[in-house]
Specification:
72% of the residues lie in helices and 0% in strands.
Length: 392
């Protein structure tokens, strides 16, 4: 197990809060034995349990996961790309910058689409390198022209900043980017972008284990997006909100609501077909099936989840980021059903599809740590994978 594993971080924070293991168990409403096993690294903490423990310790889930993974970010020279994004987000309300000569709006919008494409291809370096100047140019353009198109392009750039920050583990910066996205979407008078922002915000609460709030945000997003003109854009955002709500409901142990949201998303997906590039959400029948498998995993119905996964045929042009995340989830289900070799195969495929995203995925790190812990002597391939991740 990683020398700096989740259990040790929990124990460290617990002691800082002057709590015994019994005190933490009582606050988190889990058993004392479970707390001990998690701290010792002999049992895995589910995502919902991590959220519960984080709230009990007045900490974030990112604190428990050890994010951001600064050593690996420094090795990949990605850490130096974050501060320029932070600075670009901070000048949102200063008006046009006279020192900036922005490109034509059509060129800026095209550059924004290319950043979105890079993120879905998990070329986070390219996206993070391009974003600061793009945001600054769009900020000046939006203030100078005050057109809906300019504000919408700026909102999309803010969304890309959120995506990069989330994938690299800078969740505070991701929250700032979402606030900026709301500010720009309001000026664009764009209900679809506003609804998308609520979807992304609900995922923030999903990661934090605050499922009730996340579900409320998804519901608000549904009301917001219904103000958009009828069409594929509205249907895709509405469907994605249903998918997010399904995972939130599954984590909240509300199986009926989770199944209901999946069915609503499926109905919308039949109408839209595969529309992966509408706001780059990868919405369509494939994403509905992937989320169906995901909520079954959340409900500990691993065999059924694997049955659903076997029937999924991922389109060739599907986003590598989404496909890799699905592989990582299936790896968890395979591990928990005793198929360690197959689980590792899925992780290898995830790395091949999206190396940067996989390297910074807490789910992948936890799965690899558990694979190593279950073997007295890890094979060289697994040991090399763990070393690549930074799991010692």
């Amino acid at each position: 197990m990683d020398e700096d594993h989740i259990g040790r971080r929990i124990a460290h924070l617990r002691k800082l809060r002057h709590l015994t293991q019994r005190g933490l168990a009582d606050r988190a409403h889990i058993s004392l034995g479970y707390v001990r096993a998690i701290e010792q690294g002999t049992r895995s903490a589910s995502q919902s349990t991590l959220g519960t423990i984080a709230r009990a310790l007045s900490a974030s889930v990112g604190d428990l996961l050890g994010q951001p993974y600064l050593v690996e970010l420094q090795q990949d020279q990605l850490d130096g790309l974050i501060h320029p994004i932070r600075e670009a987000l901070d000048v949102y309300d200063l008006g046009a910058d006279s020192a900036i000569e922005p490109r034509p709006l059509a060129d800026l919008a095209a550059a924004g689409e290319e950043v979105c494409r890079s993120i879905r291809a998990t070329d986070l370096r390219a996206a993070a390198t391009e974003l600061p100047a793009l945001i600054e140019e769009l900020t000046t353009t939006a203030h100078l022209t005050e057109t809906a198109r300019a504000w919408a392009a700026l909102a999309t750039a803010y969304r890309s900043a959120h995506d990069v920050a989330t994938k690299l583990g800078f969740h505070d910066l991701a929250s700032v980017a979402l606030d900026r996205m709301a500010w720009a979407a309001e000026r664009a008078s764009n209900p679809a972008l506003a609804g998308l922002r609520q979807y992304l915000r609900s995922l923030t609460y999903l990661r934090a284990g605050q499922y009730r709030t996340g579900r409320r945000l998804a519901e608000l997003g549904q009301k917001t997006v219904l103000q958009a003109d009828p069409g594929s854009e509205r249907d895709a955002v509405q469907g994605q909100l249903h998918l997010g709500a399904s995972v939130l409901a599954a984590r909240d142990r509300d199986e009926a609501s989770a199944a209901g949201h999946i069915e609503e998303a499926r109905i919308l997906a039949r109408a839209t077909g595969e529309v992966p590039r509408i706001h780059w959400m990868s919405f369509g029948p494939t994403n509905v099936d992937v989320h169906h498998a995901s909520i079954l995993i959340e409900q500990d119905r691993y065999a059924r989840a694997l049955d659903v996964a076997r029937g999924i045929r991922v389109p060739e042009d599907w986003a590598a980021s989404r496909a890799a995340h699905h592989r990582a989830e299936i790896a968890r289900a395979l591990l928990w059903t005793g198929r360690a070799d197959q689980a590792f195969t899925q992780l290898l495929q995830a790395r091949q599809l999206a190396p940067q995203q996989t390297r910074y995925s807490p789910m992948v790190r936890q799965t690899v740590a558990e694979l190593v812990a279950t073997r007295r002597a890890a094979p060289d391939s697994l040991a090399n994978y763990a070393q690549w991740l930074g799991v010692r």
